[in-house]
């Protein structure tokens, strides 16, 4: 009888351990930019491990705020924090994946990738200085397109957004007037237009507003079948957004773990580089060692097994050399 009771107790302990493993839940919040790929990775990881990853797509500003306030297990931001800010808030930071922000338009008779724009024209549209698609500067770049007279409606992010940070960082870098009048950041005062919450909100507004233009992460443009534009890059070439042009921009990046990987990828010099590319970052609270180890396990699994899923969704997986730098960073901070 004692033997049976001991065996039953042993089985109960094993089941308890298994259920505890399966019951692990990780809560994150932040950038909408990587939401499609994080959701796909989390679904696959849950099937294999039982670990539940809940991610709220609330914008980079919200992600930074919630991890700073310690109300989530990890934050996510496309707007990288400088090392001094990380030190002040006792945070760690590493990149997870690379993607691109794309201008998207709703213009009659214009198909995805047909319209060409350059930084000057894009800047003037978002400043409200170019008011119609039939403006001479747009027509000159697009002689084969029949462009309407209708007034352009600008759509921007109303929430604190890393997508906005990447987009406005590009405009400030390439357009002096934008830098002087508006500046760059997660939340800026757009001179014209209407605001939508999240990449989802901007995508929906553009989709239902004729003659509109906005900016979203490329996966949202693809999923919503929006008409993305070509852009003239730093090398002087018109490029189409997509895996190859994002990858070309990514190759220009020198991520330094000593700076907590702080880096922008906008206006990259490559011949085929998409000019509004960016990494998206994970933020961890330094003191939450046990929770952080579980989060690191998830991203380590994603680095080993999630590249194909990322590519399917038109994100660029991190190069092996960068993944190795991140693993060394984790180890140096006692997370692996």
Please describe what this structure looks like.
- By secondary structure, the protein is α/β, with parallel strands linked by helices.
- Helices cover 44% and strands 19% of the residues.
- It is built from 14 helices and twelve strands.
- Strands 1, 2, 3, 4, 6, 7, 8, 9 and 12 form a nine-stranded mixed sheet that branches.
- The longest helix has 21 residues.
- The N terminus is likely disordered.
Low-confidence stretches: 2-21
Q: Bin the strand percentage.
A: 15-25%
Main beta sheet: 9 strands, mixed
Helix content: 40-55%
Question: What is the average of the pLDDT values?
Answer: 92
* Radius of gyration (Å): 22 Å
Secondary structure class reads alpha/beta
Distance between the termini: 44 Å
Shape: elongated
Number of beta-strand segments: 12
Number of helix segments? 14
Compressed to H and E, one letter per element, the order equals HEHEHEHEEHHEHHEHEHEEEHEHHH
In short:
By secondary structure, this protein is an alpha/beta fold. The protein has 14 helices and 12 strands.
List descriptors:
single chain, 3-stranded mixed beta sheet, 44% helix, 9-stranded mixed beta sheet, disordered N terminus
Map the helices and strands.
Layout: H1 2-22, E1 25-30, H2 35-49, E2 52-57, H3 60-68, E3 74-77, H4 83-89, E4 91-106, E5 116-117, H5 119-127, H6 136-141, E6 153-157, H7 162-174, H8 176-181, E7 194-196, H9 198-208, E8 212-217, H10 218-223, E9 227-228, E10 230-232, E11 238-239, H11 243-250, E12 277-285, H12 289-305, H13 307-312, H14 320-332
Parallel strand pairs: 1-2, 1-3, 5-10, 6-7, 6-8
Antiparallel strand pairs: 3-12, 4-8, 4-9, 4-12, 10-11
């Amino acid at each position: 009888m004692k033997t049976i009771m001991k065996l039953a107790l042993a089985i109960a302990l094993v089941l308890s351990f298994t259920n505890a493993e399966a019951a692990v839940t990780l809560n994150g919040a932040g950038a909408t930019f990587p939401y499609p790929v994080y959701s796909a990775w989390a679904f696959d990881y849950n099937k294999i491990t039982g670990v539940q990853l809940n991610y709220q797509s609330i914008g980079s500003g919200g992600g930074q705020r919630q991890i700073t306030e310690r109300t989530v297990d990890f934050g996510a931001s496309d707007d990288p924090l400088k090392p001094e800010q990380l030190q002040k808030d006792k945070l760690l930071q590493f990149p997870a994946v690379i993607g691109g922000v794309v201008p998207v338009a709703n213009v009659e008779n214009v198909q995805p990738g047909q319209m060409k724009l350059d930084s000057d024209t894009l800047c003037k549209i978002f400043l409200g200085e170019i008011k119609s698609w039939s403006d001479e500067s747009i027509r000159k770049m697009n002689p084969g397109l029949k462009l309407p007279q209708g007034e352009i409606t600008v759509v921007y992010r109303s929430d604190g957004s890393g997508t906005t940070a990447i987009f406005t960082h590009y405009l400030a870098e390439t357009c002096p007037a934008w830098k002087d009048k508006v500046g760059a950041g997660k939340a800026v005062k757009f001179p014209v237009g209407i605001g939508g919450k999240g990449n989802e909100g901007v995508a929906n507004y553009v989709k239902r507003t004729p003659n509109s233009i906005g900016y979203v992460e490329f996966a949202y443009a693809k999923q919503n079948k929006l008409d993305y534009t070509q852009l003239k890059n730093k090398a002087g070439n018109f490029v189409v957004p997509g895996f190859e042009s994002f990858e070309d921009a990514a190759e220009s990046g020198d991520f330094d773990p000593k700076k907590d990987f702080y880096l922008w990828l906008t206006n990259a010099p490559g011949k085929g580089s998409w000019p509004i590319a960016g990494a998206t970052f994970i933020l961890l609270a330094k003191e939450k060692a046990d929770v952080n180890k579980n989060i690191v396990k998830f991203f380590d699994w994603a680095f080993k097994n999630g590249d194909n899923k990322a590519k399917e969704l038109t994100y660029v997986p991190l190069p092996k050399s960068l993944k190795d730098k991140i693993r060394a960073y984790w180890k140096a901070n006692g997370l692996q």
